C-alpha cells in the first residue's frame, strides 16, 4: 500500500527499531509459508478475500473507536481510487500469489515477488521518470535472475511453469498498483487508505473467486487445522501486527533501514519453506536468488533518500 512519510524528526532507541524490524522481517517473510498452508484445503481467492475483509474490518473498527465516524470519512473519489489500487495490489498481486502457491514452493514465490522493485523502475522509465543508468542496469541484471527461475526444471520439479509465470504476473500487478497509487487521489491518512484498500480488494477477490467457481470447492469439513491457523495468522499477524510495526518504523527509523525488508523477506521465506515444508533449494534457485536479491538490494539502497519519500508495502505482506 502507498504510505507517504517524511524523514523522522526523532529516532527511536536502537533496540526498539531492531525489534520492529525483526517483526517485519520474520512475519512478512513467513506469510508465504502461511499461504502455502492455507491453499492446501481452501480455495485461494475466497480465502484471500476473507483474509483482507477481516483485517480491514478490524482496522476500520479500531480507527472508528479512536477517531469517531468523521475521522474515517472518505469521499467517493477516494473510495474509487482505493478500489483500483486495492484491486491491483490485492487481487492481481496477492490473489495470484495464492493461486500460484497451489503448484509452486512458497520460497520460490517469495523470490519471484521480490522482483517488484524491478517492475516499478520499468514503469518509471516508461512514464518518463528520471531513472539513473546504474539503476536500469541493475534492473536488467535482476530480470536475468527472474529468467533463471522461470526456466523449466529450475525448481527441481517442485513447481509448474504456469505457476511460476503466474507469480511473475502477480509481481507486475503489484508494481502497477504501487506505481499508480501515487497518481490517484487516495486518502492522505495511511491507515485509512490501507483499510479501504483492504476492504475493496478483499471484496474483489471474493467476487473473482465466486466467478471462478471456487464456491463449489468450499467444504468446511475438509479444512485442515493448518489451513485455518494459517488464515488466522495472515489476518492478525501478517496483516495487522506487521503492518503496525512497519508504519511505526516509517515514522521512527531511516527509510534506508526500513527498506531492507525488500531483500530480507525472500531469504526468510526460502529458509522457512526448506525447513518446514522440505521445499528444495536447487542450484538454479540459489543463483536466481543471489541475482535478484543483489539487484533489489542495490536499487533499494540507492533509491532510498533522506528527504521525504513515498514507499509501498510489498505484496501479500499486509
Could you explain how this protein is built, in words?
By secondary structure, the protein is mainly α. The protein contains twelve helices and two strands, in the order βααααααααααααβ. It has a two-stranded antiparallel sheet. α1 runs antiparallel to α9, α4 (106-113) runs parallel beside α7 (161-181) and α5 (116-126) crosses α6. The longest helix has 28 residues, at 225-252. It is globular and about 55 Å long.
Short descriptors:
two-stranded antiparallel ribbon, globular, 318 residues, 3% strand
Helix tally equals 12
pLDDT average, as an integer?
Answer: 87
**Helicity range of the residues?**
over 70%
Q: Beta-strand level of the residues, as a percent range?
A: under 5%
Order of helices and strands: EHHHHHHHHHHHHE
Strand runs, count = 2
Largest sheet: 2 strands, antiparallel
User: How far do the termini sit from each other?
Assistant: 8 Å
Shape: globular
Spatial strand arrangement across the major sheet:
1-2
Uncertain stretches: 4-9, 306-316
